[in-house]
Amino acid sequence: MFSSIYIFRIGRYFEDLQVKHQVMYVGYIMHHSSHWFYLAKAEFI
Fold it and tell me: How remote is the C-alpha of 45 from its chain's centroid?
């Protein structure tokens, strides 16, 4: 009983880490793509 709850909680913890990592990764890409977009826009103007 105890070990199965323990494993479940570890699994949930890693799921949360994975989701947070994906959110950070998407935010990182969006941040840098918008940065390059502004640079390109500035070059065209």
Answer: 33
**2-37 burial code (b ≥16 CB/10 A, e <16):** eeeeeeeeeeeeeeeeeeeeeeeeeeeeeeeeeeee
- How far apart are alpha carbons 30 and 45 in whole angstroms? 22
Predicted structure pTM score: 0.44
pLDDT tens track for 1-45: 567 888 888 888 888 888 888 888 888 888 778 777 777 777 665
